[in-house]
Design brief:
Elements lengths: L4 H14 L3 H14 L6 H35 L4 H30 L5 H21 L5 H19 L10 H17 L3 H21 L4 H37 L10
Helix pairs in contact: 1-2, 1-3, 2-3, 3-4, 4-5, 5-6, 5-7, 6-7, 7-8, 7-9, 8-9
């Protein structure tokens, strides 16, 4: 049997990922990137992004837990606060380490990407990573946060430009809209546009489902994304409505009315 380094690395990446050895899986995919000059198959790309996601999201969940505990320690003026803060910073450092690795590899892969959908996936992933770092960054570091916002916004918009030729039922397209609108709402505080974009995407997708004969397997993935969009639209509608009322009240206030000509 001829030794095939591409097949061997792919096999080892598969079993590493299945075994929860995500760092090892990434190393094998890195070898594939070198061997194939960045031209990964869908499976190889999914193995890379799934392994990164597992490593990052596990630590994001841990960070949320310890962040809540740190708030309690601050309130209680606990002597253990410095230790708790050290542990939280350790998680921040690890998350940033994996994100930096992910961005480094995605930048290499983007150079070889040939389809709009693959470019969408890579740009969306980079934007999501910037959003994660914003969540971890202390609020008083405004310059750092603003720079991250710009990077996230740029990458989301790069991804959105890849959507024009994609079907309304494309799950990567819908997933992009879902994450982008969360970014607009939670990070940019642009409640109105977040609501409008999410609602438009939801309505277009529902119409396409009604107009087309959709595969059952695809419907499972679509339903998951659509339910998340619908939940956000429902939650956000009250805030947007209140914002519209407040803006209308400001417009109608005596101070904002033009003085009638004498």
């Amino acid at each position: 049997m001829v030794d095939n380094p591409i097949e061997n690395n792919l096999y080892l990446a598969r079993i590493s990922h299945l075994s929860g050895l995500h760092e090892e899986a990434i190393k094998y995919i890195e070898e594939l990137i070198k061997l194939k000059n960045g031209n990964l198959t869908d499976e190889e790309r999914n193995l890379l992004l799934s392994s990164l996601k597992s490593l990052i999201n596990f630590r994001r969940d841990s960070w949320r837990t310890i962040h809540a505990l740190e708030s309690k320690e601050i309130k209680n003026q606990s002597s253990l606060l410095p230790r708790v803060s050290e542990l939280k910073q350790l998680l921040v450092d690890e998350i940033k380490q994996y994100i930096n690795k992910g961005v480094e590899l995605i930048d290499i892969l983007l150079k070889s990407a040939t389809t709009d959908e693959v470019k969408l996936i890579y740009n969306k992933t980079k934007a999501d990573y910037m959003r994660y770092i914003i969540e971890l960054t202390p609020k008083d570091k405004e310059d750092e946060i603003n720079a991250l916002k710009e990077k996230a916004d740029e990458n989301y918009k790069n991804a959105l430009t890849m959507c024009y030729n994609l079907n309304n039922l494309n799950t990567n397209k819908i997933g992009l809209v879902l994450n982008y609108t969360v970014f607009l709402y939670e990070i940019m505080k642009d409640y109105k546009n977040a609501y409008i974009i999410a609602n438009n995407a939801y309505q277009k997708t529902i119409k396409s489902i009604n107009d087309e004969n959709v595969d059952i397997t695809l419907m499972k993935d679509l339903n998951k994304l659509l339910n998340l969009l619908k939940d956000n639209i429902s939650k956000w509608s009250e805030v947007v409505e209140q914002e519209n009322i407040e803006n209308l009240a400001k417009d109608l206030s005596p101070n904002n009315q033009e003085n009638p000509s004498s």
